[in-house]
Amino acid sequence: MFGGTRKKLMRVSVGVVLLAAFVSVQSASADVQGHGSCTPKELYVSTQGNDKADGSAKHPWKTVQHARDEISGHGWNSDKQMRCDIHVNLAAGDYPVTQTISFDEGDSGANGHQVVYRSADGPGKARLLGGAPITGWQPYQGNVYKAAFDKTKPFYTMFENGERATVARYPNRATPDTWAPYLTSALPDISKEAVHNWLWSNPGDWDPSWDLSQASLTIWSGGSWSWFTDTVPILDVNFTKNQLTMKYNTRYALHNSGGGSRYFLQNSLDFLDQPGEFYVDYKNGEVYYWPKNGEKPTDSSVIRPTVQTVVNVAGSSPEHRAHDLTFDGLGVQYSDYVDWYRNGWINDGDSGDIHQYPQYDRQVEMPRDRFGAVRVTNTSHVTLKNAHISETGFTAVYALFANDHFSVTDSLIDHIGADGIKVEGGYPGEGDISNYHLFTDNYIHHFGELVPGDASGVELMDTGHNEVSYSVIDHSARYAVSLEARPEVQAADDYAQNNTFKYLNLQEAGLDSGDMGAFYTYGVDNFEPHTLDNYVSQVVIGDVLPDASMPDSGTRGVHMDAGGCGFSFTDIEVGKVTDDKYQSYQCNTVTNANWATGFDPSRMQYDKIGVTAAFPYPRPPATVSPTK
Fold first, then answer.
1. What is the DSSP string of 223-283?
2. pLDDT, tens digit, for every residue of 229-262?
3. Which residue in 17, 53, 306, 349 is a FRET match for 225, CA 20 to 30 A apart?
4. Which residue(s) pair with 379 in the sheet?
5. What's the predicted TM-score (pTM) here?
6. Could you give phi then psi for residue 482, rounded to 5 degrees?
């Protein structure tokens, strides 16, 4: 999934050390060496370069991978040789990625210095493209065109001229950036209420002439619970009984609390009936597309993903971390989705591994889905800044398990398949391995495009000592920001502590779900006494209004679910909601929030809420009071 392994001429070991010692050594080294009195080593990469060249400004290399291997192969980043940062300067242009670009501990900086991969001509100018054009388009029928592809390399999302296309679906979506409308599952008799793999339609919802042999469905399983969405291939369909069988179980039963689950069908040629839709015939290696402008696609206009992960940074273990790496100003565009998706395991212990809190199985991604366009694991002091990440199939940035001091700053993240930034720590009670992350001055919008259920602009899970600040997070079916643990976790095993959320502008959350908040927590600090150790201040939350089809309980500005204690809320303003602006147990402190009497709007620092003046991309709209 992540590009396999590779040989190098030399490996640099960081030693087997405890995390605390590792972090203190890195920080002390940086303090001693300093960065102001040395001259970085400058290396160059260009789309017009040659990997047989010397990597100079006049004779640049062609690929990032070759630059990486030259640095470690010559030992330039070793303790003995590295006396200043190393800059790998990527010239403006598009760099195709057909195999994940991987970095490990042997690619790390040394002596407190960084190995920096940067866009030399400005933010977003050098782009790593995890996709390739589909060529050879021929007329098929009407406005639909057809092309062949290698069926041993399937893909599950597609793009035209930098915009996501829609898998041909029924019913058609209302607009390009909404998920509705839906059909709703039926229940033939009460004995079928608990099923997870059979779906019944209401009479007349399906056309018996449809070919659903390669179709799937996206469904808010759980009936009235609009919490998670599943994407599941259809195994078989019986039109006479209005019944289909899914290849995999959904997260929840399809009928609950007296109601069915919202869903739409997708990937049938019979559904391809409007511009911007495509159908993939996986059996024959053919793709059908109705271009958005109605004209025949060119050999460069339609892109299919080539990888799920574009950049992967991973140490070999928590004791051998990749560290002191910076990615500055790079564009990362296009990555793939999956053939089927379910958020988490269905039951406690389903992972098959023994854990102190097996309930956490239901909180984390299954192993097959632990990827992002950029993924880090077993890392320390890795920085992603001035980035533009867009048009991904799944999560944009995924920090998995053991990471410390990971930063995403000054970045634009848009049109994302699942979460914008996701941090997933380890299992509670088994070691605090994810902490001290910084996510600031970011504009994250239009995420959860393929996984609307549980999507969040920034999602923190079982991780602490983090800061999320000075950001605009906009357009989500579900959350804008979420912090999650588990309600069963005892205080000593709860790592979701000492987090700071400040100067945030959260807009258009909860567009398609319920029983949620734009700012959401789950199962944090569930046992007395509740120590005040999570802080939220200077946050504006716009209207949280769902699609009319949403059957769940109402939407909220702030929702502290299944616990959510030990929080300080100061200077918070929430727009229109369908339920309470703030829902919580009486275990938090609230100072100057507009759901309480005595709110003083003059304390709101609108000019500081959102991205800063240094933000390097087009700025989002200014922050204003949601009541104006």
1. TT--S--EEEEEEEEETTTTEEEESS--SS-SEETTEE-EEEEE--GGG--STTEEEEETT
2. 999 999 999 999 999 999 999 999 999 878 999 9
3. 349
4. 322, 403
5. 0.94
6. -140, 145
